[in-house]
Each structure stands twice: as C-alpha cells, then as structure tokens.
Design goal:
- It is globular, with a radius of gyration of 20 Å.
- The protein has 16 helices and twelve strands.
- The chain is α/β, with parallel strands linked by helices.
- The strands form two sheets. Strands 1, 2, 3, 4, 5, 6 and 12 form a seven-stranded mixed beta sheet that branches.
- The chain folds into two domains: about 1-145 and about 355-370, Nucleotidyltransferase, domain 5 (2-Layer Sandwich); about 150-320, Nucleotidyltransferase, domain 5 (2-Layer Sandwich).
Length: about 375
C-alpha cells in the first residue's frame, strides 16, 4: 500500500510530504519504506496570514475561517505534486494523512483544547481518496495534552532489547521520547523540552533577515551570555513536571521581543545564547533519565545545525549522540512519515496515542477520516 503523510510544523517552513510504502496491510510489526520526501514552501502571503492567525492580537474568526480552506487547498496541491513527480494517480494511494497547521495549543486551559487547521474536505475534493486528519483532539478529550503524538510511531519502529533510546526531534519546539530497553507502550515517557529552532529563527529574522541559522554558522561566531542563559532557564515551563507540551504561546516571537527589550547583546551573541538555551534545556531533560547504555538519536531541522549538535554533546559528555541519518532514517521526513503511520492505525480502528506520554486516561484512536 502507498500512502502520503504530510506535516506542517511550528517553523512555518512549508508542507513536508512523505511518499511511503507499507509492504502489507498489517499494523502489528509494522514496517515501511520511504520512497520520497519533499518540502513544498508556503507562499509568503500564507506565512503572514498563519502568523496573524496565531497572534492573539491580530487573529479573527474571518481570517481563521478562510485560512482553514486556503491551507486545505495547499495541502491537496502538495499531495498531487508528489504524485505527479512519480507519475502516480491519486487512486494509486491508499490514503493521505495530514497533521494540519497548529494555530493554538492550550492543553492546560479551563477547557483544554488544541486547534489544527487545513480543511480535509478541500484535500478530498482534489484527491478523492480517504484523508485522515485531526490527530490530537481525541487524546485531549480523554484528558491528555494532545501531544506528543510521534512517540507512538517511535515505539512501533525503534524499540530495542539492547539499549535505552532517547529520540529527540528539534523542530520549532524540541521534544524527546524515552524508550527503555524492552519497553512496553506504557513505559514510554515523552514531552516537549522547550524551544527548538523557534527562538533561534526569530533572532535570525530580526537581526539578519534570514529564516534560520544555516549549519549554525552564525551561532558559531557568537558568544553565549551565561547570565542571560541562566535567566532564560528559569522560565516556568522547564520546572513543570511531564507530561507537558508547549509552543509559540510560551516560546514564540512575543518572548523574543521581550528579551531584546530587556537585554543588550550583539546579534551573533543572541543567536549563540538562544542556541545554547535549546541545547541546555534538551540536555537537562535527558539527564532526568540516567542510563549506563543510552543512545540519543536526533532528528528534525535542528539536526542539521552543527553548532547546536556540538553544544548538546558538550552538555551530555560521554553520551552516544547520533542523527536519524546515522540511524538509517531521514531526519527531515520523520514527522511526515509518522503521520502516515498514525493514519494507517486510524483506518484500522486501532488505538494510536500514548497515554503515559500525553496524560490521557486511556488509549484512543486518533484522527478523523474524510472519505466523501
């Protein structure tokens, strides 16, 4: 079976599309083959509208309503572009699984909630095959945080009898999944550790008009301001017990704007200090789980930042740290592939959340199916 998994993250760099082949229809002992991966950038106007929709000051219901359809059309176009690249027709696929764009995530509000948009009916109108979306709400309804959802796929694919594995994903936000040796699904611990690329990207855009720090070259030229780093590590999120999740509400551009008003650092020093914040908060989270034989496997856009990886190694001396590529899989495609895997379980009616990671009271089937 062929499937397409799609992910749009907090970095707003576009639509990640993975073309995946499942060799058989079973979900137990699931395996897959990644056939191709592409990122289709959002139009600049769409990025601006998404940023407005995420802002409590600039968002409005008319914008949200229209943007939901706009993104649905873009997701459908991205899926078709992948199919056209491989001379495939939509009915060659079994399904499309799409995470959608997170606009707001409030699992600790009076009414715990999360909102991902990208109208599935618009995707279905273009492809006419089942579309699986809305992977978070069922977990929230079961008392969970609605995140993280990728640990389920990590458990299915990477559990080991030999080593404890810590999977790190560094997107806009950074998160970890801890898989003990011979883990059952109830043994999994997973949570957001804090900012990933989000604050680094904000600094690059503010000072250099660049979307991100390519290879960590700017951070490498700067100096980490230890006083500012120490103050940043006092953020209340880091002391909160897991399960926990975070996003732009805690570590977005509003926080960055507050920081540059409060502290006077050279631009490169800002980038270096915020890179160190990501590395140190990640390392501190991992060090909560001591092990004599642990593998830390890093994926996501941050895995291509050599300066960030070097800082993580400095904060975790003696720990084996490798990238997803060294482990044999694509860092960039990880989350889009995860959507395809989650979608397969949804279509089979099989539970695919991890209550020990999200705090949900029981296993549930994540995702809604649009097939007409």
């Amino acid at each position: 079976m062929l499937a397409v998994g799609m992910m749009s993250g907090t970095s707003l760099d576009g639509i990640d599309v993975a073309l995946v082949e499942f060799p058989d229809n079973k979900v137990e002992g699931l395996t897959y083959k990644l056939l191709d991966f592409e990122t289709y950038p959002y139009p600049a106007s769409t990025i601006s509208r998404v940023q407005d929709a995420m802002s409590l000051e600039r968002s409005n219901v008319a914008l949200l309503c229209e943007l939901n359809v706009e993104l649905g059309k873009l997701y459908g176009q991205a899926a078709l572009a992948m199919l056209e690249k491989h001379n495939l027709k939509a009915n060659d696929l079994g399904f499309i699984a799409n995470h959608g764009q997170t606009i707001y995530h409030a699992p600790n509000a009076k009414y715990p909630s999360t909102l991902q948009i990208g109208e599935p009916a618009e995707i279905y109108a273009q492809v006419k095959i089942p579309v699986v979306t809305n992977f978070r709400e069922a977990d929230v309804a079961a008392g969970g945080q609605g995140a993280p959802i990728v640990p389920f796929t990590e458990f299915q694919l990477y559990k080991s009898a030999e080593a404890e594995r810590v999977f790190v994903n560094i997107g806009g936000i950074a998160n970890i999944t801890v898989l003990p040796r011979n883990a059952s699904i109830d043994d999994i611990v997973a949570f957001d550790t804090g900012p990933g690329n989000m604050l680094i990207d904000a600094a690059m855009q503010h000072f250099y008009q660049k979307p991100y720090d390519e290879n960590g070259d700017t951070a490498k030229t700067g100096n980490v301001n230890q006083q500012v780093l120490t103050e940043l590590l006092k953020h209340s999120y880091f002391a909160r017990p897991y399960p926990k999740t975070t996003g732009r509400e805690d570590f977005g551009v509003q926080l960055f704007d507050e920081l540059v008003q409060k502290y006077d650092l050279a631009p490169a020093d800002w980038v270096a200090t915020l890179t160190a914040l990501t590395a140190k908060s990640l390392a501190d989270a991992i060090l909560q789980f001591p092990s004599n034989n642990v593998e830390v496997i890093i994926a996501g856009g941050g895995s291509y930042n050599a300066t960030l990886l070097e800082m993580i190694r400095q904060y975790l001396p003696g720990v084996k740290i490798i990238t997803q590529e060294e482990f044999g899989y694509s860092s960039e495609a990880k989350e889009a592939v995860a959507m395809a895997i989650l979608g397969k379980y949804t279509l089979e009616g099989q539970p695919n959340n991890v209550p020990s990671a999200t705090g949900a009271s029981h296993p549930v089937v994540l995702g809604r199916i649009t097939n007409r």
